[in-house]
């Protein structure tokens, strides 16, 4: 099921972990207070150690209420370090799938793609020029640009959801989409913003499916570390090959239809009508 708020961490797991942290810090602070007193340590050291233990849950709450993403940085780093080769390959392919959809939709819709860069973790990131521009302070978005930018913003979410059942990399895309809708001039009513989001999601999925050969070629190119021009060349070559194969298949079908007997033609037409839901 499509869940734009999905993450790799279930809410129950997060709650259980926080409870364990609270209990652990409570026990730790009490243990430190008793042990340091028994050992006759300096009162200031005992006080500082006890409150440092007890302050950990408060610090977690403070960070979680202001910048919750920071809490997952050490967890992600640990998971990345502990991941086996298969897990790393799967995560890398997921990122490539997400970014390939941005590149494909931007290219099809005529939005200029600035570059394909590699971030600190080695993952590719597609930089769409207009998306970067509309995030500048004071920059407004014309009504004629909104739908195209919305489609590109939603494409990563739809590609991940289609391939893996849920989208884990959607938070930044949804944040960008919200910024685009809020910066539109003339302003878009709330109901219209929801309609635009739905339209963008459907159109992004449609483009990915309509140009599936090009999309798969871009995913492969990104996974191989290729740049923007090579990705686009691979997409165009894949589209040309798919078009040629489709033409051959259509010609073969036309030739088979030409040789049909009346009975065979009637049976085929009934099957086609049944497939369309007319019978």
From TrEMBL:
InterPro entries: Peptidase_M41-like
Residue stretches of biased makeup (Basic and acidic residues): 261-279
GO molecular function: ATP binding; ATP-dependent peptidase activity; metalloendopeptidase activity
Segments for region (Disordered): 259-279
Transmembrane spans: 51-73
Alphabetized UniProt keyword annotations: Membrane, Transmembrane, Transmembrane helix
Organism from which the protein derives: Calcidiscus leptoporus
Protein name: Peptidase M41 domain-containing protein
Keyword Transmembrane helix: yes
One record GO biological process: proteolysis
High-level lineage: Eukaryota, Haptista, Haptophyta, Prymnesiophyceae, Coccolithales
């Amino acid at each position: 099921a499509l869940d734009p708020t999905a993450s790799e961490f279930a809410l129950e797991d997060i709650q259980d972990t926080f409870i364990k942290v609270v209990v652990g810090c409570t026990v730790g602070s009490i243990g430190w207070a008793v042990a340091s007193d028994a050992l006759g340590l300096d009162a200031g050291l005992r006080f500082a150690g006890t409150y440092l233990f007890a302050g950990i849950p408060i610090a977690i709450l403070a960070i979680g209420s202001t910048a919750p993403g920071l809490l997952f940085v050490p967890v992600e780093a640990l998971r990345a370090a502990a991941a086996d080769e298969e897990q790393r390959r799967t995560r890398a392919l997921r990122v490539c799938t997400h970014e390939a959809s941005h590149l494909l939709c931007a290219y099809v819709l005529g939005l200029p793609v600035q570059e394909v860069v590699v971030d600190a973790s080695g993952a590719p990131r597609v930089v769409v020029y207009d998306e970067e521009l509309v995030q500048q302070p004071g920059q407004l978005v014309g009504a004629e640009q909104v739908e195209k930018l919305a489609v590109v913003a939603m494409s990563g979410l739809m590609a991940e959801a289609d391939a893996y059942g849920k989208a884990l990399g959607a938070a930044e895309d949804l944040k960008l989409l919200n910024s685009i809708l809020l910066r539109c001039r003339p302003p878009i009513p709330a109901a219209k913003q929801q309609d635009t989001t739905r339209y963008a999601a459907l159109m992004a999925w449609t483009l990915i499916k309509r140009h599936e050969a090009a999309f798969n070629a871009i995913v492969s190119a990104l996974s191989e570390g290729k740049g923007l021009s090579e990705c686009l060349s691979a997409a165009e070559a894949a589209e040309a090959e798919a078009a040629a194969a489709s033409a051959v298949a259509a010609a073969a079908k036309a030739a088979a239809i030409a040789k049909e007997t009346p009975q065979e033609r009637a049976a085929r037409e009934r099957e086609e009508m049944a497939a369309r839901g007319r019978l």
